[in-house]
């Protein structure tokens, strides 16, 4: 049996099958709610990156009740992939990095805003941890960006996060918009997984903040979307070039500055490289094996070739 199929059959996987959840991740949202009570008073909710739909099932059950009767409840689910219908869930097949998706969500709320946005988004994992963490962080920022368009002040945002080495940068970005940010690892999330969830409460964007899609990774046109932003919407980091024009230019190659009659003296590097990527190449060159094909048969010399003709 393959490792992945064995791993999937943990207690939450089996319970999800028995209890009718489309994925074991349903328990993650339920456990987040057990500790943070995120569904209290929520009528309008958005489920970003929703397929196959277990979080949407949880939202439908918690907000509409078992009878599914709450008429003023609206839940919009978004995913790149198509999802089988769930009663009481409005589905949008779309990309959360697109402004058009934010507009489509708002359209379903008749111009009103959501009380709760959840996002369980994950990119296709490559296995290269740095790249996976980076892409996940970009997806989280896209989710945050779209959330600023659809979440009402005081609302809650819950999102999957990878706790990689640069995660504190994400925390600071979230803290710009939410005074309360907590990282939560549900018991149903495997310990071996880098994933956790940020629970961001009491949405309060900076004064004068106007939601925009100005993240250059998203679908903005720099001139139209970004360059005209003012006040807290525009962040300008000062750029300062140090040193004056009489200093050395690091892109130039200068001749050695030797006094007349002085000879060049080689000095050892202050700290030698510990394990440089070119070490193998240096070793190959030292032993005269660099760029030489390793053939297991002798190359005929020209005399052999001539005599064979
Ligand atoms: N919460 C879901 C559930 O309980 O069934 C599981 C979500 S699954 C872990 C991650 C989802 O993120 C995938 O379905 C994927 O299509 C979606 N996704 C990834 N990037 C996306 C994007 N840019 N826009 C919309 N959905 C995206």
TrEMBL record:
Reactions catalysed, as given in the entry: cytidine(32)/guanosine(34) in tRNA + 2 S-adenosyl-L-methionine = 2'-O-methylcytidine(32)/2'-O-methylguanosine(34) in tRNA + 2 S-adenosyl-L-homocysteine + 2 H(+)
Subcellular location: Cytoplasm; Nucleus
Enzyme class: transferase
Sequence positions that bind S-adenosyl-L-methionine: 53, 55, 79, 95, 120
SUPFAM superfamilies registered for this protein in UniProt: S-adenosyl-L-methionine-dependent methyltransferases
InterPro entries: RNA_methyltr_E_TRM7, RNA_methyltr_RlmE, RNA_MeTrfase_FtsJ_dom, rRNA-MeTfrase_E, SAM-dependent_MTases_sf
GO molecular function terms noted in the UniProt entry: tRNA (guanosine(34)-2'-O)-methyltransferase activity
Active-site residues per Swiss-Prot or TrEMBL entry: 160 (proton acceptor)
Reported function: Methylates the 2'-O-ribose of nucleotides at positions 32 and 34 of the tRNA anticodon loop of substrate tRNAs.
Protein name stated in the entry: Putative tRNA (cytidine(32)/guanosine(34)-2'-O)-methyltransferase
Organism from which the protein derives: Biomphalaria glabrata
